[in-house]
What does this fold into?
Amino acid sequence: MPELPEVETIRRGLEPHLRGRTFTAFETGDLKVFQFDLLELCRLEGQTVTSLGRRGKYLLVVMKREILVIHLGMTGQLTLRDPGSADSSRFLRQETTGLQRIRQHAPDKHTHLQILLDDGRTLMFRDVRKFGKVHLLKNDGAAVAAFFAHMGMEPLDDSYQLQPFLKYLKNRKQRVKSLLLDQRFVAGVGNIYADEALFEASIHPATRVRYLRRYQKERLFEVIPVVLRKGIEFGGTSLRDYVNSDGESGSHQQNLQVYGREGQPCYHCGQPIQRIVISQRSSHYCPCCQTR
It folds into this structure.
């Protein structure tokens, strides 16, 4: 699933192309991905994109009166199609990551939303597994606040503060890996970056939160934005379906310390990386660097 760094990479890639562009027409596919009456799409015709935002793993296409909110789910992809450029005739598979590099492509059965722009290009939302969701909100502070009321601190802005972080951890009984996956705690952290943050903080993923020492909590607070920013720096992590707005893979998978490296030596101590299942999710860790 695309996590915060992947969504932020897509946002940064799309914003210069979408800002100032006007929506002129729409074409939809499978209705499962839409969380509103499709008749409401007509409200977007003639509206101009003022900015692209992000909240956790959600991408926000902001207009004067409306906000289109897109969650990519497991396999969602957002790319631009230029009628002046050739479409790829087939999907190209990159063997090192298993990523499907789509480049520019013609609409297919997995393309669920096409938005025609006033410059002739099309913004396309493609999602093979259809776990992605598209929402439509009024551009109103109360409506936006209500929609995101369930989400925790945004780790890359000023809302990310140590005291609320420590307060949320107090007396929690669940395992720390499970807590990191809870979007009500810190928004945007998923399986990949939770494993990486716990490694950087030298915390075993199965440790119960109530047994963490103060210095461990402070260290975890510090490293979460660090690993997320590193993911953004390298264009996100491409293991399967994630591509940026140009249809290209990220390269952060080459920098991962533990995630997906089961049986391979730890870069710090040489011990084989191990994998366990916590809350039905794979968790990767070094048994030497992350003792309980």
